TrEMBL record:
Name by which UniProt lists this protein: Helix-turn-helix domain-containing protein
Region of interest (Disordered), ranges: 138-185
The organism of origin for this protein: Streptomyces carpaticus
Membrane-crossing residue ranges in chain numbering: 113-133
Ranges annotated as biased composition (Acidic residues): 156-166
Length: 273
């Protein structure tokens, strides 16, 4: 276009210019619509110079730019033609400030719940910290007041303490578990406690009726107790490793290591069968 532009009435209209460019580019309305995302009905209306379906001047300019670019025209020249055709003496200001103004338009203030929650949390932390600080100070002061310095021990106190310590009765050693078990045996029954003290031993125990009370291997430190009204029959696979307490009395030896022993015990003093 030359610097001295002719009036818009001496040139093809915006719609005719876009339509002719589309035809020269061998494009259909549907193809232009797919490329610009502008509905085909609006493209038809623009090509007929009907801009009322665009939704306003701003949208009309936007559609014209996209269609001009799609059919190979300079969007600025087509917009200038549109401005002359619509009777505008000068070009309108660019649309960007309009959209910018709309974008920065202040929105109604909403309650800032995040800030409120942060403020509440800070207040709680401050209150808890103040409470602990006050409580800690009071407690420490009270404890300092209550803790009066103890008088230094005198020589007489030391002598009295030594006498008390010397007069204190000796502490009895804790009873052995096997001794406690033996001490509680009933007098009207036969009770045998078998404890393996070194190695292991296979042991079998039966009552007076022949009912099997136990049969298995006891390892070092294991113990079994057998009780019957009349009689206990034992078989020890490694007699030297077994320590027996019969009716509350320990037996010194019931056999040698590796020796198999068959023993029978009744009420009263232990007697080997």
């Amino acid at each position: 276009m030359s610097n001295g532009t002719s009036p818009a009435k001496d040139r093809p209209s915006v719609g005719r210019t876009l339509q002719q460019a589309r035809i020269d580019a061998r494009l259909t309305v549907d193809e232009v619509s797919s490329a610009t995302r502008v509905r085909a009905q609006i493209i038809h209306a623009i090509e007929a110079d009907d801009f009322s379906r665009c939704g306003g001047d701003v949208y009309a300019r936007g559609h014209i730019r996209m269609i001009a670019r799609a059919v190979g025209l300079d969007p600025a020249e087509v917009i200038a033609l549109y401005a002359e055709q619509e009777g505008e003496a000068t070009l309108p200001p660019p649309t960007a400030p309009v959209f910018e103004a709309e974008r920065i338009r202040p929105e109604p203030r909403r309650p800032n719940w995040t800030a409120a929650m942060v403020a509440a949390i800070v207040a709680v932390i401050a209150f808890v910290g103040f409470t602990f600080a006050g409580g800690g100070g009071g407690g420490s002061a009270g404890s300092v007041a209550n803790e009066s310095p103890s008088p230094s021990p005198t020589a007489e106190d030391g002598e009295e303490g030594a006498e008390q310590e010397s007069e204190a009765p000796p502490v009895d050693p804790e009873p052995d578990p096997s001794d406690e078990a033996v001490a509680g045996v009933p007098a009207d029954k036969v009770t045998v406690v078998a404890t393996v003290e070194s190695g292991s031993s296979w042991i079998s125990a039966k009552d007076a009726s022949g009912r099997l009370l136990f049969e298995g291997v006891l390892e070092d430190g294991d113990s079994q107790t057998f009780v019957d009204d009349e009689q206990i029959d034992l078989v020890l696979g490694n007699a030297g490793a077994v320590q027996l307490h019969v009716n509350g009395k320990p037996l010194e030896s019931v056999g040698e290591l590796g020796q198999v022993q068959r023993l029978t015990y009744t009420k009263g003093d232990p007697e080997e069968g």
